[in-house]
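Input.
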Amino acid sequence: MQSSYLLWIDQKPPHAKVRECIENESLTLLYAKNIFEGLDFIGKYEIDLIFVDSEQDGMSMLEIVKLLHKRNANMPILCLVDSKQSALASDALFIGAIDYLLKPYIISQLQRCICNAKAAMSSVEDFVAESHVSKQILRLANRAALASTATILIQGPSGTGKEKLAQFIHR
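Output.
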């Protein structure tokens, strides 16, 4: 059986409860204290999820997300940001991150974030999304499907996949 890997890029190693949560999600934790160590892991392992902390030395979180996204646009990147950094979280989503987690967080939030990311990556395989906007729509639809009971209105011209998107949200 092939291992699934979660790469955690942060100046400080994750504490025991975070490591336990990651193990409970059947992921093997790879810890990198900077992007350079992270790139070494990416070269050696097939990474399933990447968490990048907002506090980095040498390179900003946004630069790291851009670099990782440029290397592999399908690599699921999640950002750890302080609660006062909502603009940074938004920018990270715009340039390729699939989600973010506000610090300080509780373990159940981390677990939900990991589950949502795993579900998002497996459920979008039915779609062909090349443009950045299309990929953002799929990420938003997945978040709505996993975390909301809200009514969603999908509008657009005929033949653009509204019905497929609605089916995606409902399954």
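Strands lie at 5-9, 28-32, 47-53, 77-82, 99-103.
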